[in-house]
Amino acid sequence: MPEPEPASPGPAPPPAALFDIPPIRTVDALRALVWLQRGAADIAAQPWPSLFYGLCFAGMGGLLLVVFRFAIDYTSTLAMGFMLAGPVLAIGLYDLSRQREELAGPPGRVRLLRSLVAWRHNPGGIGIYVLILTIAFLVWARASMVTFALFEARALPTWSAFFVQLASMQNLAFVAAFFGVGMLFALLVFVLSAVSIPFLYDRRTDAVTAAAVSVTAVAKNPVAMTVWAVSIVMLVGAGLATLYIGLVFTGPLIGHATWHAYRDLVAP
Questions:
Q1: By residue range, what is the domain housing residue 150?
Q2: What CA–CA distances, in Å, run from 36 to 96, 142, 150?
Q3: 266: which strand partners?
């Protein structure tokens, strides 16, 4: 009796995706204004928990000024590091915005203590992302030191001398190089972390997927995200220009608005 022919194996299954990226929405060019408006509404609904984080931001900045007041290179580098670490430092603000969403109705009481341990939602993913940002900061710090060494061969300038250079348009090559390198690193970090930290906090996924989601969101909304990046720079710049006092309000505003940007851009 002849043996039956083996069954056809059929089509091969598709290869598994390296990471699962959720749908990314397209928003209008000025959507950042809506995010800022919603962020301000979060602060108005829960002023004390939000301003607590703002006071922490301002206190950290003031501490930098006091400890490194005679070393402009360290102060400026640490200030840039503060900006790079902003998405991670704002995890508690994301949690406050999420708590307000969960209240669903008249403004209720959010829990500050819960927001302080919000990183526990995804310690592995957030921890890896912190490591990535730390490496980026160390590279930026080295580039900053090299820039100072190249253009200030005799001695590092004081803050007053630095601002005199800016006001009198002296040593424009140094100013252009210093801010150019800083903006390059800031742009890279913004593209990688525009919505990645809220995504890690909310979805409990891995850092590679979060970075891919952030890059995709920026790529699909280049104009809107450019407006958002400029808004962040202006708000942070206002905080720095007021000796970090302005960060009491602008820091929480950016944090809450970032959560709403994530909600708008990344589909559930």
A1: 31-95+118-265
A2: 15, 34, 40
A3: 24
Give the predicted TM-score (pTM) of the model: 0.78
Count of alpha carbons within 13 Å of 2, Cβ hemisphere only?
3
Q: pLDDT confidence of 174, banded at 50, 70, 90?
A: low
Per-residue pLDDT tens digits for 208-257: 899 999 999 999 999 999 999 999 989 988 887 787 888 899 999 999 99
Residue 157 covered by a domain: yes
Considering the domain boundaries, does residue 3 fall inside one? no
6 in any annotated domain: no
Instruction: Give tens-digit pLDDT for 179-214.
Output: 777 778 778 888 988 999 999 999 888 888 999 999
> Is residue 25 one of the residues assigned to a domain?
no
Three-class HEC string of the chain: CCCCCCCCCCCCCCCCCCCCCCCECCCCCCHHHHHHHHHHHHHHHCHHHHHHHHHHHHHHHHHHHHHCCCCHHHHHHHHHHHHHCHHHHCHHHHHHHHHHHHHCCCCCCCCHHHHHCHHHHCHHHHHHHHHHHHHHHHHHHHHHHHHHHHHCCCCCCCHHHHHHHHHHCCCHHHHHHHHHHHHHHHHHHHHHHCCHHHHHHHHCCCHHHHHHHHHHHHHHCHHHHHHHHHHHHHHHHHHHHCCCCCHHHHHHHHHHHHHHHHHHHECC
In total, how many domains does the chain have? 1
